[in-house]
Amino acid sequence: MTHAIVARQSGGPEVLEVAEVDRPVPGPGQLLVKVAAVGVNFIDTYKRSGVYKVAYPFTPGSEASGTVEELGEGVTGFSAGDRVATAEGVSCYAGYALVDADKALPVPDGVDDFTAAALPLQGITAHYLINSSFKVEPGHTVLLHAGAGGVGLLLIQLLKARGAHVITTVSTDEKEALARGAGADHVLRYDGFAAKVRELTDGAGAHVVYDGVGKDTFDESLAALRIRGTLVLFGAASGPVPPFDPQRLNAGGSLYLTRPTITHFLRDAQERRWRSGELFAAVADGSLKVRIGARYDLADAASAHTDLEQRRTTGKVILVP
After folding, report:
1. pTM
2. Is residue 189's pLDDT more than 90?
């Protein structure tokens, strides 16, 4: 037996309970991983609350780090004792989790378990946003929302390393300090941010806006773009964007809109290794800093969800079994 967080129905954070469950058994192509740390993400709250449909009873968690304990039939390239992480696990809010071997990311020496759990989902998100959803080039002006969040702090660092001019939005002085510390050129509050972006770009607007906030920022994000600019809508922290008329893209300057999700940017083991390898190497050599803003015991998963949803956290939130 082992312990896990279980939701027996959809609802608020209070539906998350600690339960004794059977220890998983790896099937063909799977690894049994003893979980060292778990990343907490907004997608976990969407599934818990019923925004995304799941089967109950449900154990959240797709992101974790840990040590391989057992190999399923046919697994090659891994051994018991290897340290791995994943952004594509299942039921990771637990003492043990199963990970498909082709979705396991080797963790190099020099990257600790907490960092390894904090990086995959948000790091790979940041990587595909600037390399694939819209390829940022030196000199591009980028507007990024929630610059002190987990994705935001990583994105700022990666964008500055790429040579971009980075404008970001935050809600508090504390978060402004974090965003500036990560290298942001300009830090704005949300109120009237589109007009301020225009002022900072001599009226032109941003080449790209990375918007993980959603409903509350969408309209102004479109207004902050230059002609033929791109809005990359990658999250909905404030709620989903209502249906809108595509003619607005024409009126705004032949704009582009994309709504990516991480699954489509992890198409095979080669792509996973490329993205995670670049990220882990940057952490190991010190050029990419991962901020862990809060750690909670696994049993306190409900508190972690509450703080994340109420935007009390900065950087990454992790659970420790």
Report:
1. 0.88
2. yes
